[in-house]
């Protein structure tokens, strides 16, 4: 009897995964909206009104500008201490949960860390509020996967979908959100992974639009086409960003090291960082928060280079104090700020030495943002799409491509400083796979111990068989040239046949072609093919000289261990790939 179409959706099927990814997208948008509401709520508590963090900070009296970040840091530190005391059987960081974990994230730990970030951001901390939003969105994906009792691969992918939804909601950039997770966290852009990420990011963006919370962060509707003469300067700006971004990250790590040396408890360390930041905010209230409003002013209101340079230095200091003291949050948006200031300075310098290209400050500011982000995150494709989606300006794509690619290669060539440690994890895995795949056999070679000369008496060969549990002895001549092997079974057969073997020398009983030797320049696959046709545990390795020389031996167990290392390196990314659909019986 014919059956109708099978509409059953298994919880771990590929089609069902798209549905759960969409659900993760809804969750990512909702927690982003909730985090925004939390920021406004805390602002009402200490300022009596809410709005852009720079405006709220500017309206405060000087003493409250000084103390608010310190109080926020103290509360944030207490929450972090509480977070450390909860369950340790799940990951506190969504990148670790996806890249090297099983996808299980601690809900209590995640909420406490997000509340800690909320306290820092709402009181003026110079750090990205978007980091906590993305973390909460990833936590939603983890909760959905655990409620569905998904397998490890699907759970990790759902966490990744949540993270993509969070980036999409926070920045209004759905494509860049999916690419961010695929390029940085998963380290894989296969469509079996990328499809659910896109669905989650698109649904999140749709929810933000329907709820009235979407806006293009740096929309540039009147931006003119980029002249060809600006492409070469864009490339130069990319090189400059590639040099500067690692120094920015090193500055943050250096300040973090200084705070660590104080020996203060975490709450006091965060309070100290907040107090020092408050000192900056007393004179520069625009340094509060992630710097969004300042970037907008740089794009639309040209400023003197002295003012831009001062803003740049103060922002680097403010971000280093906040992140270095141990505050939870991202430096993604502050990185855009630093890149914007760098691009603005570059544009003014270019106008002085090349007057014909003056008047393109907005373009070079955006190029600076994208290239600095590409260098800091080691994700140039994501950076290109991020700037494009945040500005809605297609004409920016070509200069961004040149600048972001140049910034990436320069930064990676100069330093190992990266924004996300998971990037180094993926690069280490990639390097390991390359070494394993292209490893030559000589890397597995051991010295040969059971070697005998052709002129040695057979009695000596019999003694060696008693001393070593082997089936073959390797035979060389007086000059060390390879001759063949003596098989234990041959000697046993001669003795049983009452052949006088004691009067013979090894050269008379060796086998020339009984064992096919290996060569040191063979690949692992070529060696494995020979081992497959061989019953023993080891094979000799000889040179390609004429005559050949015995170099050593390779053991099958060593070869299998090397393949096992390669498999383990591949498993980290292979786990993300959804299993093929199975036909129902």
From TrEMBL:
It is a multi-pass membrane protein. Residues 445-501, 509-570 form the CBS domain. The chain crosses the membrane at residues 20-42, 62-81, 155-181, 230-252, 264-284, 304-324, 331-350, 362-385, 392-410. The keyword Ion transport applies. InterPro entries: CBS_dom, CBS_dom_sf, Cl-channel_core, ClC, ClC-type_chloride_channel. Keywords: CBS domain, Chloride, Chloride channel, Ion channel, Ion transport, Membrane, Transmembrane, Transmembrane helix, Transport. It is found in: Membrane. The keyword Transmembrane helix applies. PANTHER family: CHLORIDE CHANNEL PROTEIN CLC-E. This is ClcB-like voltage-gated chloride channel protein.
């Amino acid at each position: 009897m014919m059956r109708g179409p099978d509409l059953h959706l298994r919880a771990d099927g590929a089609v069902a995964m798209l549905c759960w990814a969409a659900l993760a997208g809804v969750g990512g948008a909702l927690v982003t909206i909730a985090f925004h509401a939390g920021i406004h709520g805390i602002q009402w508590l200490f300022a009596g009104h809410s709005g852009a963090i720079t405006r709220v900070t500017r309206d405060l009296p000087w003493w409250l500008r000084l103390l608010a970040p310190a109080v926020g840091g103290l509360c944030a530190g207490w929450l972090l201490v509480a977070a450390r005391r909860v369950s340790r059987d799940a990951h506190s960081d969504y990148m670790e949960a996806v890249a090297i974990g099983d996808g299980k994230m601690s809900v209590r730990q995640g909420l406490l860390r997000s509340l800690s970030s909320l306290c820092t951001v709402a009181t003026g901390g110079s750090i990205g509020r978007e980091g906590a939003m993305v973390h909460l969105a990833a936590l939603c994906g983890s909760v959905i996967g655990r409620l569905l009792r998904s397998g490890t691969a699907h759970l990790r992918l759902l966490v990744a979908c949540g993270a993509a939804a969070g980036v999409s909601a926070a920045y209004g950039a759905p494509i860049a959100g999916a690419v961010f997770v695929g390029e940085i966290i998963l380290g894989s852009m296969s469509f079996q992974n990328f499809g659910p990420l896109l669905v989650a990011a698109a649904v999140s963006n749709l929810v933000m639009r329907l709820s009235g919370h979407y806006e293009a962060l740096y929309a540039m509707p009147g931006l003119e086409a980029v002249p060809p003469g600006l492409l070469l300067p864009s490339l130069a700006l990319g090189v400059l960003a590639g040099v500067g971004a690692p120094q920015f990250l090193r500055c943050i790590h250096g300040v973090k090291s200084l705070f660590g040396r104080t020996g203060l408890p975490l709450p006091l360390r965060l309070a100290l960082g907040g107090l020092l930041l408050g000192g900056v905010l007393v004179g520069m209230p625009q340094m509060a928060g992630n710097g969004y409003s300042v970037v907008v002013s740089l794009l639309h209101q040209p400023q003197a280079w002295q003012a831009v340079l001062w803003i740049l230095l103060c922002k680097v200091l403010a971000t280093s104090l906040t992140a270095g003291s141990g505050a939870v949050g991202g430096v993604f948006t502050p990185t855009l700020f630093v890149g914007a200031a760098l691009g603005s300075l570059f544009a003014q310098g270019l106008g002085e030495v090349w007057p014909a290209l003056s008047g393109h400050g907005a373009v070079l500011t955006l190029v600076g943002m994208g290239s600095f982000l590409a260098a800091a995150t080691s994700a140039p494709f994501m950076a290109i799409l991020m700037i494009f989606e945040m500005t809605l300006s297609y004409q920016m794509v070509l200069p961004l491509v040149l600048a972001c690619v140049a910034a990436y290669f320069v930064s990676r060539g100069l330093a190992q400083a990266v924004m996300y440690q998971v990037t180094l994890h993926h690069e280490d895995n990639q390097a390991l796979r390359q070494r394993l795949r292209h490893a030559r056999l000589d890397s597995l070679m051991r010295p040969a111990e059971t070697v005998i000369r052709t002129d040695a008496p057979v009695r000596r060969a019999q003694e060696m068989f008693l001393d070593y549990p082997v089936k073959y002895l390797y035979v060389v001549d007086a000059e060390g040239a390879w001759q063949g092997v003596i098989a234990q079974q041959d000697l046993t057969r001669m003795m049983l046949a009452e052949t006088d073997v004691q009067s013979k020398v090894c050269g008379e009983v060796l086998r020339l072609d009984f064992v096919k030797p290996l060569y040191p320049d063979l690949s692992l696959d070529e060696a494995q093919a020979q081992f497959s046709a061989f019953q023993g545990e080891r094979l000799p390795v000889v040179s390609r000289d004429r005559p050949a020389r015995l170099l050593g031996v390779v053991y099958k167990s060593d070869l299998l261990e090397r393949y096992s290392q390669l498999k383990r390196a591949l498993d980290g990314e292979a786990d993300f790939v959804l299993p093929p659909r199975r036909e129902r019986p």
